[in-house]
Amino acid sequence: MAEKKRYSDEELEEFRAIINEKLELAYRDYNQMMKQIMNADGNDIDDTSHAYNVLEEGSATQSKEEMVQFASRQQKFIQGLEAALVRIENKTYGIDRITGELIPKERLRAVPHATLSVASKNARKKF
C-alpha cells in the first residue's frame, strides 16, 4: 500500500472543526485580555482612587505588563490557527514542513497549528 501523502477531505474537515473551536475560544480570551489591559472591564478603581500607593502602582504596572505578554502570545496562537486554516484550504495541512510526511493525527488534535512532527521538532532543537 502506498504511503499517504495528505489527509483526506473528511479528515481535513475534522481538523477544521477543531481549529475553529479553538479559534473561537482564543479570540474570546484575547478580547478579554485586551479589555483588561485597556481598563475597559470597569472593575478597576485606578481612575477614581486618589490615594495611590507606590507599591500598588508598581504591582499594577507589572500585572499589566504580564497581561500584555499573555495577549501577545494569544495573538501569535490565533495567527498560527488561522495559518492552519489556510493550509486546510490548500490541502497541505498536517504535512511536516521538514520531512514532507504526515504529522500524526494525535499531535494535530493536541496542537492543531503544528507544522512539525514531534521527531522533527526534537531534531531541530538539537541544532
Written description of the protein model:
The protein has 127 residues and is an all-alpha fold. It has four helices and no strands. It has helices spanning 9-37, 54-89, 105-110, 118-125.
Task: Quote the average pLDDT.
Answer: 86
DSSP strand count: 0
Shape: elongated
- Distance from N terminus to C terminus (CA atoms, Å) equals 35 Å
Largest sheet: none
Uncertain regions spanning at least 5 consecutive residues = none
Strand content: under 5%
Number of helices, where a helix is a run of at least 4 consecutive DSSP H or I residues? 4
**Rg value:** 20 Å
Output the structural class.
mainly alpha
In which range does the helix fraction lie? 55-70%
Key structural traits:
127 residues, mainly alpha, 4 helices, 62% helix
At a glance:
The chain has helices spanning 9-37, 54-89, 105-110, 118-125. It is mainly α and 127 residues long.
Q: Topology of this structure?
A:
Blueprint: H1 9-37, H2 54-89, H3 105-110, H4 118-125
